[in-house]
Amino acid sequence: MRWLRISTALTGIAACGFMLAQVAPHAREAGAILAAQDDPAVLSELKLNELLRQNDRLVQDNIEAALAAGDADLANSFVELARDRNIALSDDVLNRVSDAVRDESSTTHFAKRFATGLVTGSADDVASLSGTVAGDLLVIGDIRDVVREGKHLAMGEETDRLVLGLAAAGLAVTAATYVSVGGVAPVRAGLTLVKDARKVRRLGEGLAAWAGRSAREVVDTPMLQNAVASGSVLRPGETVSAIKAAFRAEKAGALVRLGKDVTRVAEKTGARGAMDSLRIAEGPKDVARAARLAEAQGGKTRAIMKLLGRGALLLAGGAFDLALWLFGAAMTLFGLLSSIKATTERLTQAWCDRRRARRLRQAQAAAETALASTALKA
Fold first, then answer.
1. pTM over the 0.85 mark
2. Residue ranges of the domains in the chain?
3. Are 112 and 119 in contact (CB under 8 A)?
């Protein structure tokens, strides 16, 4: 019976030790992810490690997909990621990406995209963003958007209040840009990107809802309706003055901070990278996290956001599963320690019992010897 109890404890040690060896790597990774949930740069690195272990052709496949879609910037971002991770790419792939980037950066292409951004007010790359920002700095783009959406509002038609608010905020920021000789131009570019993302429906639902609420607060609707009624793109000076009067600058702090964060992303990843961050963001905090990620990862950021989505910015889901790995490891470790304790106690008890039995036998033998000696003397 005693040896059965010892064998049971030893079996517990073996079983718990085996289970701990299986659970520990997952628990260690889960712990690292949970610890890094407030640091998007570290969090994305950990998630990338896991993702790339599962599929060694993931980077190659995404480069091919980006080239097929005509997105040379995204393909180049994956090339940078491959270099950082020491992932081998064929010379053919590298040459095709290099050629695509060269074509996209050509003077003809830049001029065409600049003109598109200037005329249409939509941006999806550096060239078109330059044209869009130029148009907004000349107040043409913002006046166009305010007049269009303001007339919809005045006529009771469906109005994009977010575009309206961003354009109004943009006019005020543009005026400050001129006064400060470009000092707040980065904010101007950021607001333009948010407005463009809204126009082409690449603004995340959560972020769009938040920005919409913020935009409502910065515009005095009745005053804006009066300004729009008499406003015109052909009279920019008068129109801007009237619209600025309807703009509540004291309510625009949140939108200005959003513009700054978007610009931080664009400075490291380009306009498309900023658009990507706006698409996956559910609020201004996500955009701020994207800015931190871009500053840490640079040109690799677009590839990371493509692979991980919103998971590159925060622990969007799976926290319960990660906690379960940690709980499982803790319980397995507890079982191992309990088995070791039980084994130690039972072995010690067995050793003590053996010593006690041996002393008893020795005492009995001594008593018998003494009794025999007494009997002989008698």
1. no
2. 1-37+319-378, 107-318
3. no
